[in-house]
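Form P-L/3: holo structure prediction, ligand 2-deoxy-2-amino glucitol-6-phosphate.
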Amino acid sequence: MCGIVGYIGEREVVPVILEGLKRLEYRGYDSAGIAILKENKLKIKKTEGRLEKLICKVNSDPGFVGSNIGIGHTRWATHGEPNEINAHPHTDCKGEIAVVHNGIIENYTKLKEKLTAEGHEFKSGTDTEVIAHLVEKFYNNNNNLEDAVRHAMQEVQGAYAIGVISTREPDKIVAARFGSPLIIGTGKRGHFIASDVPAILPYTQDVVYLGEKEIAVLTKDDIDFRNIKEFEKLEKESVKIEWDVKSADIGGFSHFMLKEIYEQPGVIRNALYRLVKPEGMTALGGIFALENYFKKRGKTIQDLNKIIIVACGTSWHAALIGEYVIENLARIPVEVEYASEFQYRCPTIDKDTLIILISQSGETADTITSMREAKKRGGNIFGICNVVGSTIYRETEAGIYTLAGPEIGVASTKAFTSQLFALYLIALYLGRMKGNVSLGKGIRLVKGLKEIPEKIEEILNTSEKNIIKIAEKFYKHKNFLYLGRNVNFPIALEGALKLKEISYIHAEGYPAGEMKHGPIALIDKNMPVVVVVPEDSVYEKVMSNIEEVKARGGKVIAVATKGDKEIAKKADYVIYIPRTEEILTPLLTVIPLQLLAYHIAVKRGCDVDKPRNLAKSVTVE
Ligand code: AGP
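OUTPUT (holo model):
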């Protein structure tokens, strides 16, 4: 939510900031702004709406050429409606200090009242503006910008990642963070601040993760790190980011979402190469850390008594599949929790309980709060994250990077399949360790996993045309129902979420057997029902559910196994997937549903990669 970027160095700053904002636009896109320092003056431009408007405005102003220091922001509104006044950067009374901020200042009302009483004049309805006025308050003739920022940030409660510049010290950017992510990029021709890695990939792959309550002072040739409270100097290591610049580019695709759907075979191949051993075992570094934890307590991983998986949205759907798979293969009880509810649940956790947090971004506020709550209660914390160096990854004792590469489309696709893959490996590992999965079965499952990339390729190569035709037929419908059973029930939920998010069509996912307990009342000739029905142990039952839909005039779009002749007689439309092990089918059944949602949204003229009201990482609770 909200993306910030800043640069100081030898380059012309405006193209760097605008390119960075383009690459961060997935974090928020209701307004945008930029501030640069030129001839010791602040020059600011802001616009309501998409970044494109800001780019036009800035590029047509010659005053925005000839500067080497600036900050920019792309916004997802929390406080104050998305208009030009509320767009960042925000300034102090004198227009000398400019601030960009990602996060929420929880005590901003009190601070605003106090600052107003002291004579500060506010222009916007945002929480962020208090930061600009606080910095102004603490900035005097005897100190410098970093000193003022650190005093200001000790007054605020809530989450922040900020970039601050001032006309009085036009040779530095001051950055600070608590709760919201912020990276510092170190380049040969200057230094960067950014909310996420893709923003700076064209210039550098070397980054330093700013820690909680830390402050960084960036000049052209140097970066100084300190903690906010004591202002002690910190030595921080730089990390090389493996992603190359192409991985965050759209390539020849019309949308990032489509590109990311097509990247799935490659993502899984990469995970196979890194994490799977041929003899039906896995090589999960994170699991070894967990094993050591048990060892230190004179126990083994077999003593694990319960697993709780906590996540939001699509990651929560992956968690539901994890529940089926881990219970099936490892025979360990699993609970799945919405992160936004977990903290109120008073869950029973002890030292032998494992809490798995799943998050693509590793920055989702609800999931972070759950992680901290679970830690307090003494559980073992394990993270499954995609974004390298993210908060969840850093704060968990053990975990797995899914390494799916940057996911830019707001609707999650490749991150989901990579999370599933990680969960399969965890289940397989625990199953083997507990003796529930024989060597033979382990080898069979590994073989099945190894065939998945090719099978996804087959779906992508053979069904997209058919899916486009189905999309053309149904894109004007107002409601959809998605049904699935057993391990494919969460796929029904995921299919419905994808459609909702990017096409704004109301869609509900349901366990197929649950339909008769309510949703069946909705079915008539106008209701398309997407049924996930691979040939598996619940096939006959799902076929009966299809009969129930047909008997009421509903239109059935089935995702079924190649070679299934029966389904062709019953469903109105069929999208075929190759056969695989029953437990692995979600890795395949989800692909047609991603494509269906994508093509329906495209037909409806929706902005697929930036659906309204959403943001890629939700950093507020
Ligand atoms: C998925 O398409 C969504 N945009 C959303 O539900 C997302 O999965 C959720 O916000 C969780 O994000 P995370 O995986 O980064 O924690």
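COMMENT: Residues 312-315, 359-361, 364, 367, 410-412, 501, 614, 617-618 surround 2-deoxy-2-amino glucitol-6-phosphate (CB under 6 Å).
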